[in-house]
Amino acid sequence: MILGGGPAGCGAALELVRSGKANATLIERGAVVGGNAGSFEWAGQRLDYGSHRLHHATDPSILSDIKALLGDDLVSRERHGRIRLRGQWVHFPPQALDLLRRLDRRFALGMLRDVALGPLRRRHPAGPESFASVLLQHLGPTMCEQFYFPYARKIWGAPPEALSAIQARKRVSAATISKLVRRVIRPPGAGRFYYPRRGFGQITESFADAARGRGAELLLGWSVTSVRRAGASRSWVVVAERDGAVREIPADQVWSTIPITLLARMTDPPPPPGILEATEQIVYRAMVLVYLKLDVPRFSATDAHYFPEENVAMTRLSEPKNYSGTDEPAGSTVLCAEIPCATTDPLWSMADDAMGQLVAEDMARAGLTLPRAPSAVLTRRLAQAYPIYRRGYEGPFGELDRWSSSVPGLLVFGRQGLFAHDNTHHALFMAYAAVDCLRSDGSFDQARWDGHYRPIFATHVVED
Ligand SMILES: Cc1cc2nc3c(=O)[nH]c(=O)nc-3n(C[C@H](O)[C@H](O)[C@H](O)COP(=O)(O)OP(=O)(O)OC[C@H]3O[C@@H](n4cnc5c(N)ncnc54)[C@H](O)[C@@H]3O)c2cc1C
Questions:
Q1: In 3D, which of 257, 336, 250, 253 has the Cα closest to residue 293?
Q2: Staple 421 to which of 24, 260, 342, 462, CB 3.0 to 4.6 Å?
Q3: Residues 351 and 325 both lie in one domain
Q4: How many domains does the chain have?
Q5: Ligand 1 centroid to 415 CA: how many Å?
């Protein structure tokens, strides 16, 4: 029984039935599969939940499966992003010539000074280890104060000093000057990505369809409400609800990709009180996605605009047509603004029109002029967009993780399960790893999962 139909859940379902090691039933709360990496249709277009691309870092065997499943629908595209930095647009991913041309002398001199003083900073780290101290030590104050720190305050809603050093190591792929330089001087053409013609969600949909075709059962629109031990045995009863109807489904093993906090609260018998307390300290950052329909063929040639500066509420504005490369629909385009927030913020419940107005004002502040007023506005909300690694989060998360690993017949993985910043290809990698650890007699090789795969998961670094 697989809980959750995002990439991790659907990847596991296909790999399980394909390997012949087990039957699989998957329960997904949404009406369609895909989770945060899903797509939906609006304004004559397939749209994603914010900017999503498949990165070249995808494990070769997983990439070859995706290529086989999607065929010609998987296109390779060149990235055309830009960042608003000190009132200037610079190319993203960064390019050496472009940086030299666009950034002002004060910034360039600051960077040069930071490179020169690097060895000194690394010998004398400032204060307790945090997101701020790691990046300051390795990159210096110029890049931190102009880019990473304001961006971090917006994305995670916390001061960089309050965030864990792990956040810097896992989330910032250019966390040292040498990595930054390597990114800047990489050969032209290296900044490419894969994208499915029918939206990023087509990846997970194709896994789900293939799993269904090989006999997996997918229950969509059913919300799991309880995961109950079946008597004294090692097996489970999973309870799910849809529109007042309740189903109780028996399972030998439960593989959960839903948020670990939710799982801990619905497991029966419940975990010890300390574990339930730990769930209170594990917090996900939410996000409102605001889609503007513009009645013009295209807004710009840029795929994503990034906004580290704090006078703009959104962190990123993308134009989906520039991901798939389509010209359809001919007379309109859509812009998607990503606005991170807490579910307790007024933003979370703001009406669509007010959100549309907020994005238009943000755009004006960033020097982006709307060619005409949007003809329609739509919002979508993600309650668990990003894990927030506050300093010390490892304590409560470690307790939850140890608890879930100690329960026989329960396996937790995926971005929400392992509270990881992971990309889709990482979530799929975990799914494949889980099936690799399942023996043909149905028992789970926990030693291989813990000793071989977990150290690999720990090396996953997110790409934007
Ligand atoms: C704004 C944004 C941009 C991103 N950009 C990229 C990118 O460019 N490239 C990339 O590779 N990755 C990107 N990601 C990350 C990507 O979305 C995740 O890696 C991926 O969705 C993780 O898959 P998952 O299956 O682990 O989790 P999820 O996609 O979160 O799936 C979990 C599933 O569990 C379901 N669920 C939860 N509770 C229940 C319940 N009680 N009962 C039943 N089902 C339940 C949910 O509905 C969901 O479908 C981005 C993420 C965000 C938020």
A1: 336
A2: 462
A3: yes
A4: 3
A5: 7
Shared domain for 402 and 267, answered yes or no, is yes
Structure tokens at 303: 């795929």
Structural domain containing residue 156? 96-184
pLDDT tens profile 55-97: 999 999 999 999 999 999 999 999 999 999 888 898 887 676 7
Any idea what the CATH number is for the domain that residue 314 is in? 3.90.660.20
- Binned at pLDDT 50, 70 and 90, residue 156 comes out as very high
CA dihedral (175, 180, 186, 189) positive or negative: positive
Spatial distance between the Cα atoms of 280 and 379, rounded to a whole number of angstroms: 28
Evaluate whether 423 touches 430 at the Cβ level (below 8 Å).
Answer: no
> Residue whose CA is closest, atom 38 of ligand 1?
258
Whose CA is closest to 425, among 387, 448, 385, 457? 457
Does ligand 1 lie within 6 Å of residue 6's CB atom? yes
CA 381 to chain centre: 14
Q: Are residues 126 and 256 in the same domain?
A: no
Do 277 and 399 fall within a single domain? yes
Tell how far the Cα of 96 is from the centroid of ligand 1, in angstroms. Answer: 34
Q: Which of 195, 424, 457, 462 to mutate to test the pocket of ligand 1 (most atoms within 8 A of CB)?
A: 424
* Predicted structure pTM score: 0.95
Whether 53 lines ligand 1, by a CB cut-off of 6 Å, is yes
Rounded Cα distance between 37 and 256, Å, is 17
What is the C-alpha to C-alpha distance for residues 246 and 250, in angstroms, rounded to an integer? 13
Residue pLDDT, tens place only, 180-219: 555 555 544 468 999 999 999 999 999 999 999 999 999 9
Domain assignment present for residue 45? The answer is no
130 CB within 6 A, ligand 1? no
